[in-house]
Amino acid sequence: MTGSRVQVNKSHKSRFSTKSSRNLHKTAAKDKSRIGKSDCNVAKGAKAARVQRNKMLRDQKRLALLKEKRASSGIASPPRVIVLFGLSASVNLNSVREDLLRQLSSEGTGALSSTVSSSKYRLRTSVLQAPHGDLVGCMEMAKVADLVAFVASASSFSEESMSYYIDSFGNQCLSVFRSLGLPSTAVLIRDLPTDLKKRKDLKKMCISSLTSEFPEDCKFYAADTKDELHKFLWLFKEQRLTVPHWRNQRPFLMAQKVDVVADDCNSGKCTLLLHGYLRAHCLSVNQLVHISGAGDFQLGKIEILKDPFPLNARKESDAMESDEIHDLEVIRTLSPDPLKLEPLLVENVPDPLAGEQTWPTEAEMAEADQNQKHRKQKKRALPRGTSEYQAAWIVDDSDEADSDSDNDADDGMVLDQEDRGFPGYEGTNNSDIDDDQASLNFRYADDGTENDSVMMEGEILTREQIEDEIKKIKEAHAEDEEFPDEVDTPLDVPARKRFAKYRGLKSFRTSSWDPKESLPPEYARIFAFDKFTRTQKHVFANALKMEQENMDDSVPASLYVRLHIKEVPAGIAHRLCEMAERSPLIASGLLQHESKMSVLHFSVKKHDTYDAPIKAKEELIFHVGFRQFVARPIFSSDNMNSDKHKMERFLHAGCFSVASIYAPICFPPLPLIVLKSADGGVAPAVAAVGSLRSIDPDRIILKKIVLTGYPQRVSKLKAIVRYMFHNPEDVRWFKVKRALFVFVP
């Protein structure tokens, strides 16, 4: 055989060709030179770009983790806060705190201060002891804790209780901590026996009993000996701490020292001095601050002080210096700029001429005429003076069959907040119109939700009166839970007067209702956002920009500062000094607009341990993040497919409701803890938990009622119902209104 033995592939084989080369014959001749080029280099470039981008993301995450580690455990980082919480009253927290401070201090003796700088562990730590039985104090400590160390006593295993190691107060605090957002956690087990086998078995039994109550990453440590505490502290130093997301959005300071300076110009005011480490973010001297339990205030100035607990080793002469000398040594002072100072604006000042109508232009009049011509509207018999908006509530005769097919839950009488009278109706006599106008006198004679919510304030009630009032509230709560929205027509008041401020809706879901209709003049004093989500993004972007640019009027985080909070009432300042001795006093920086009043909506759920009924418009204590205030919420359902929401008279257990209050603006996400104070000086109890949902003054909340009676005869299209009305005038009045499906007088 002769010839070449080199393999020659057929030209039509396209196994290794590209898609563009295979489709080259479909391309026009003028585009062959442009499309026929190989895309190998392009593909390689895209792959290289992806590889480079992934490498850049990894480097950014690595740098972010390194920065976070340096900020939390570096030399310049503020002291880590350890909160010791006893799971039962039998736990001796004093001994645990003394052992930890003695282990951290270099001299080997217990330190007088709760903050220790340990050169042995290269760590600065503040050890706080949560007071058992003081719910508010435990909550305030949990808000600033970097690590919550739950202390369990192994000797409590023999005690008779529902849980061997956790009492009722411990269970309540655990649920509250979960609602607030748990930081890093650890469990210290004390009072283990000295025998090695018994010690190991009892520790294993304790861990198995407590594992379900804590997060998966929670570690358990024996904490009886110095070696065990040394192991815990060494692992705590290397641990990457996690804190709730809401806490990292605002700068805050846990006051280690509180002073009061009298104001010479104003006798009723004073200046509050707070010493402590600034945490989370930088704080501007032009920013507003919130003092927990006091309110919002402006800053007079910020002084950066020398760190009283430096981590570097000091000379013997420096070690002999007192803390007072360090406190007096000011490194830098920041004063506010009057042009940039955030105003302490709480309420809006409405313009009385803002609602005046101007004369329309010719273009607007021509456009209105054109729209009127193109509008095809069905002719209906309407009452005199009825507007197009009111006509949307009226049911035509042809729609009666359709209304019967609607869901029964959508029909009902809904509370109307209008102050105007109903226009005259053709076919009704003058006596009915007079009765309708006279019914406005009964406008505030609604059911007991408004009047009974404030239970005889300012009067001294006897024990029998208090018991009767509680019994009535419990009976009303049970009746509302079993028969919601059902109302009996009173015998002594005509129904047309009793229910004068209600109107009928064809459908609760689809009927129109103007949120701006008949608002009181006081409603203009609150603030509303055009687009709340966009405003929130803008505010957080400005806060991040201030953090990155490191402006001259701001103090970086981790520094020891002294805040001069001006114009604080003297009584509140002295009360804060007393509170600081029991629980930490927290000052948090406010973002833009967060001092202004608006309507806040919370998603709340009744706490499992609270059995008493919670009535609408009842005075409750709201803890929203670092802020706390007293409010009277209105509860409503959450209708996802409707812009109208039904008011609820009580907060029922086992389901979420929306609580609406007037309060300062807060940007979500923020947790909510609702406390209810009891009579007789008893500590407040946890009534509900939840979170901030939205800020919307235009949310429509309607009160719905259903008139009840006793059916006597029922046919396919009609029914005879007795005892729904008690006089013929009410029957005729509601017959006309039912035909119109409008119950507005």
TrEMBL record:
InterPro entries the UniProt entry points to: AARP2CN, Bms1/Tsr1, BMS1_TSR1_C, G_Bms1/Tsr1_dom
Domain Bms1-type G: 78-242
GO biological process, one term: ribosome biogenesis
GO cellular component: nucleolus
Segments crossing the lipid bilayer: none
UniProt biased composition (Basic and acidic residues): 28-37
The entry's keywords: Nucleus, Ribosome biogenesis
PANTHER family hit by this protein: PRE-RRNA-PROCESSING PROTEIN TSR1 HOMOLOG, RIBOSOME BIOGENESIS PROTEIN
Name of protein: Bms1-type G domain-containing protein
Pfam families on file: AARP2CN, RIBIOP_C, Tsr1_G-like
Biased composition (Basic residues): 10-27, 373-382
Residue spans of biased composition, Acidic residues class: 396-413
Stored PROSITE patterns: G_BMS1 (PS51714)
Compartment(s) where it occurs, according to its Swiss-Prot or TrEMBL record: Nucleus, Nucleolus
Annotated stretches, region: Disordered: 1-38, 365-384, 390-413
Family listed: Belongs to the TRAFAC class translation factor GTPase superfamily. Bms1-like GTPase family. TSR1 subfamily.
Lineage: superkingdom: Eukaryota
Record-linked SMART domains: AARP2CN, DUF663
